[in-house]
Here is the input.
Amino acid sequence: MASGTRALAVVAGLFTAVQLLLVVPGSGIGWDEAVYASQVSPYVPAAFFSAPRARGITLLAAPAAALGQDPVNLRVWFALLSGGALFGSFRVWLTILRPAVVVVAAGLFASLWITLLYGSQAMPNLWVAYGAVVAVACFLLPPSRRAHAGLAAALALVALMRPSDALWLALPLAVAALAARAPVRLVPLAAGVGLGALPWVVEAYLRYGGLAARLHRAGEIQGGFGGQFAFGAQLRALSGRTLCRPCSDVAWGRPELALWWFALPVAVAAGISVARGRRRPLVLATAAAVSVSVPYLFLIGYAAPRFLLPAYALLALPAAQALVHAARTWRRPAVAVLVVALAGHLAVQYAVLHRAADRYRDLRTAYARTAAELHRRGVHPPCTVSGHEAVRVAYALGCSSRQVGGHDGSIDAAGLRAMACGRPVVLLTAGGAPPPAFARAWRPHGLSPLPGTRTLHALLPPACTDEGGRGHQGHQGHQGHQGATLPTLPSRP
Here is the structure.
């Protein structure tokens, strides 16, 4: 046991170190991260919080967000936190499976570019994965107050991060409890899901008019639930795309980057078949992994690799069982082939991680440049940004973000014009898109383009008139712009 704990600590330490060395330096902030961090930041007004989102990750982000707007604060904090959570979550399995299997499983999961990229991000999916690993382990432990408390706490964490994921995770565990004629296990399952989802449900009644209304709105934002097939989209996303929406126009140009995805179910099946006396834990882990994958493979029409992190964490256990068994029973030539295959797998993961991390560094440079250009034109806090990529530009400036219409619609045109009389307001348009009707008289100013755009313009409102008819500027210097160009659909948090 002690040797397994030490080896697991080494894996967790390496996981953290790789993040700090390869991912954290110079990294910019993602759109969803900016939304989550702004909810608890004393430096940036809270961005619009859409119906599908849950506030669990904002609680984890709060200590780092309190230090300032620099994304590196979040990156370092979450790199350290995710390394500790990797150790803690897989450590529970040391009493269920052989230490070598648990350590290899943690290593497999930690080596994925997806895990390494999101380990240092303020995003909920990795924390759902850690909660799922702990929940299944606690369910398998001999019944006790400690095991039941751990099961409830793990499911509460998952529900706090993503309530729907907690329901899908609890489903196979509930079936297993009933099959084993142990209905007492249903109590911590229900308690954990209910406690973790309670803030989301309460907010549904306070802000959305009820639970049914919030669920309906969440479905609209996600493009509807049910009858969709996202396998192809997930495959395309494995090349390093953090969001594939839509994926129909994305060519699958690097199929070798997805070979591990096809090898994974083979390794899982092999691990279960050779487990013998430890087959039940691996079967349950696999069933839970399949269950939490269902909504992301069959109920939505787009993909992001992070959606499947909970499944990968659970499937790493039977896959590790297969690898450990092969290392112990195969002859040296076969083991050598396996080692070469694993080395190739790690090389692929590193290559994709390197490209993805570089994109985040490019984002930091681009948004800092845009913020500096707007600041020179008089856009400074308190201010409001609207239009193309308003959330991230606003976060970099310390402004609020508001949209006229769309999924994040939080203000109308009249309200935006009125706001411009008292603060800098800026409306961003990209790609030569014409300004909306209400902003056709606003002054355009060219900006350096952001990644993915050919051109970027800031529309600044003219002098406004107060009730007494006296013309005045909403702020000194050039006025900011916000508002009308609708953003792309928000990524699923």
Notes: Residues 465-493 have pLDDT under 50 and may be disordered.
